[in-house]
Amino acid sequence: MAPFDEEDDSFLLVVILETHEDLWSSLAGESQSADIGNLSLTSFIQQVLVFLNTFLAINEANKLVVIAACGDHSDILYTTASLHRESQGPKKAASSGNASEEILRKLHTLLQEEAARPGGDSARPAVLAGALSRALCLINKAQVGNGGTGGGRAPGRARLLVLKGSPDATEQYISVMNAIFAAQKVEVVIDACMLGAHDSAFLQQAAHLTDGVYLRPKHKGALLQYLLTVFCGDAFSRSFLELPRPAGVDFRAACFCHRRAIDLGYVCSVCLSIFCENVTDCSTCGTAFRAGRTPALKRKAVGPLS
Amino acid sequence: MDFISWLETLPADTVGKLYTSHWACQAVLRGLTSLAKQYVIRILFLDVPVATSVVDSWTLQSSKSKHTTAVNRLKGLQLLLPSTVPSKDGKAQAYILHPVFREQLRWAVSKGRNVGTDEVPSTVFDRAPSRDQLTQYAQQQWETLMLYLVGSVDRPPSPSPLIKGPKLDVDKILAGAHLMTGSKKSRSIQEQGFRFLLSDTYSQLWRLLRVYIATGEERSRAPLGTILNFLLQLGFRDVGSPFALAELDDIQRNIAGDMAQLGLIMPFSAKDGSLWLAPTRLALALAGGNSGQLQHEVTDGFIVVETNYRVYAYTSSLLQTAILRLFTRCECVLPNLFVGVLTRESISGALACGLNADQIVLYLRQHAHPHVASRTPVVPEVVADQVRLWQADTQRVQHNSAILYDDFPSPEVFRLSAQKARALGVWLWEDPKAGMGRLAVLESGHQAMREYIKSIK
User: A233 CB near a chain B CB, below 8 Å?
Assistant: First the structure.
């Protein structure tokens, strides 16, 4: 990691916002039983916007990208003007003034489009993997742009924050894990704030592998305070602050054949693919497991992949 | 000395008044160190005081010193005010955020930044200066000012012909900042002036603006807050997004004229003859912390230092070559390249001007060419060490005013006196063999020593 400069605490934050029915329903469902504060859709968006504004206010060089993950695609809601360099003229600069207005406008059109779509789509889980990959591409682009001339200053200056409400979609297991490993490789920290009723194994693993923070707020009405306290700090001040530590990480993997989350499974000895039942050949690498001899596939506990 | 350290020196009620502007509050937030920023935003939306024990538990045990520095900074800026919270045993110490600051900052982050988003007719945009023009203008004005300070040019940067009003008295400001002495005819740069030249643009800007703000009160009878607010607001505008001169009041118009002269804003006229102002990159430094400046520096790097003490500077700027000539011996100047050597003589010359070794090394490092900026160390260690050694060479002898005692009545009195001098920390030299002994102590300890010797005689 690049040494952190005490004076330069700016960084690039990419927020992935799940705009899926599940998120809204998980927020609403909580409000009936919660003792402290319920979080309506409006106040959820308000609080997130205040958080984003604060992030932009603490350093003029801070850059922000907001990505919405919907049922079947991801969409960029906002990008700091300086990130798209090629189209930089005075006209462009004037049109993108207020971050909150732009996010709200885009979100509104996006939700209307979603509603207008013929039914069936809304049942599909949000594309977390797609949004993650897109975010990593954006971060990579921004870092290559900076690091090209200035030397190795760029790494460690970007972070991903995932705001998620829906339960994990195990059918996305492979692509999500691949995105997480990619983030780990390029030293991008993934933070996660889980708003649903249950912990998300994906996000726990993402935060664990990339040295990020995973949080499932107890009092959702005070979301803003959680966001400001935990997710606003740059990498430098983070190294001094006490941050929530994970109580335990759900390391369960999903099998490659039925996408079920499993504790115990069969692992291919050649490519390490995971299966929930004994199969005759590996669907990933094509290795044939001959029956009768020492089984190549051993049933063993599925642990963290790294 | 930057904006924040300057605020700390102001009286509490002046600072309190400043916080009524949300521009000031945002600028203060940006100027804080990263840990202090986190503390402010953590308590920003709390209406009740936070117990000190809670605040203390925010940092890891290993970084307590950082924590104390951050908290003291916040207290010094009147941001953290002492308060109490009820606890098990009566009341406990607590902190609360400055109420006015809290309200203003809450308002600012709820609304998002929106300076420069006012409607600007497209006819104005057609005439608006491009980014390169802005940078060029800012550089030209600022460099002329520096060259004027060095004495390479006879005139300070010219005011813009577009803005009418009293001209900025550059001499007075430079003199006020203790950079120059003398009047127009016999100007001479002061020791601090050389040091000023080596510091980064951000500190230079604030040093001059501090004098500008202080003298502004008497000049235009505008209260400190008005000037500062206008300047800070300027810093929050996007570079190059124009605003109309007609919308400003008289005081602001004068300030705008002065800032145009310093290169912070570039005036231009639209097709219909109306006057508009576009902030340049220099203006960004007004409200930003140091970080914006750092990025600025990286793109502008031009110096390569080699282990053989040779300095290559890829620049055609008169100012930059003038600065380099302060501490290098010039070998040759090509149209886009300056080659100099760091020698013992050139460094001693610079030290005699009042510079010090660390400043020279820092200047070479901050302006490193992008190709060497990623290298560690940027300035070869052997060069940096040698520059420091040359400085140490000049400081081999130390001068102290001292008092010499002799003719002690007995060796015993001498022995006790020498002991006492050591205990007081003023002992410099002793010679027990000469007569009854001789003893030299610092002048500051004379009073105490005389009384002591009298008492034991």
Answer: yes
Put simply, the answer to whether A59 touches B30 (Cβ < 8 Å) is yes
Contact assessment for residue A69 and residue A16, using Cβ atoms and an 8 Å cutoff: yes
Using the Cα atoms of residue B306, residue A156, residue A101 and residue A219 in order, give the sign of their dihedral.
negative
In chain A, DSSP assigns E strands to 12-18, 63-69, 74-79, 158-164, 189-194, 214-215, 253-254, 261-262, 264-267, 274-275, 298-301
Residue of B nearest to A95 (CA): B117
CA atoms within 13 A on the CB side of B281: 23
Q: Where in chain A is the domain with CATH 3.40.50.410?
A: 12-238
**Residue A13 to chain B, least CA–CA distance (Å):** 16
Q: Report the residue of chain B nearest A48, measured CA to CA.
A: B110
Can you read off the two tokens belonging to residue B108? 């600012």
Question: Is B45 in the A-facing interface, judged by CB distances under 8 Å?
Answer: yes
Q: Determine contact: B123 vs chain A, CB below 8 A.
A: no
Cross-chain Cβ contact B112/A151 below 8 Å: no
Query: How far off is chain B from A196, nearest CA to CA, in Å?
Result: 24
Question: Chain B, 51-70: which have a CB under 8 Å from a chain A CB?
Answer: 57-60, 63, 66-67
Measured between CB atoms, which of A61, A150, A237 is closest to B292? A61
Out of A8, A58, A99, the one facing B41 most closely (by C-beta) is: A58
From chain A, the residues in CB contact with B117 under 8 A are 94, 97-98
B45 to A61: CB separation less than 8 angstroms, yes or no: no
Distance from CA of A228 to the nearest CA of B (A): 6
| CB atoms B112 and A7 under 8 Å | no
Q: Hey, which bits of A58-177 come out as E strands?
A: 63-69, 74-79, 158-164
Out of 1.10.287, 3.10.20, 1.10.10, 1.25.10, select the CATH number for domain B3-111: 1.10.10
pLDDT per residue as tens, chain B (457 positions): 577 888 888 888 888 888 888 888 888 888 888 889 999 999 999 888 998 888 888 888 888 888 998 899 898 888 888 888 888 877 888 999 999 999 999 988 888 765 555 566 777 777 778 878 888 888 888 888 888 887 777 777 777 777 776 777 788 888 888 787 766 556 667 777 888 888 777 778 888 888 888 787 776 666 777 888 888 888 887 777 788 888 888 888 888 888 888 888 888 888 777 888 888 888 877 776 554 444 444 456 788 999 999 999 998 888 888 888 889 999 999 988 999 999 999 998 888 888 888 888 888 888 888 888 777 788 899 999 999 999 988 877 878 888 888 888 888 888 888 888 888 888 888 888 877 888 888 888 888 888 888 888 7
Q: Indicate the CATH number for domain A12-238.
A: 3.40.50.410
Question: B295 and A59 in contact by Cβ < 8 A?
Answer: no
* Cα–Cα dist B13/B23, whole Å: 18
Whether the Cβ atoms of residue B293 and residue A11 lie closer than 8 Å to each other? no
Q: What is the DSSP letter of A208?
A: H
Q: Is A9 on the interface with B (CB under 8 A)?
A: yes
Residues B66, B150: Cα–Cα separation, whole Å: 39
**Complex confidence, ipTM:** 0.79
Compute the half-sphere exposure of residue B127: CA atoms within 13 Å on the CB side of its CA.
17
B54: nearest CA partner in chain A: A242
Query: How far lies B373's CA from each of A150, B139, B293, B369, B452, in Å?
Result: 7, 22, 16, 6, 60
CATH numeric code, B402-456 = 3.30.70.2610
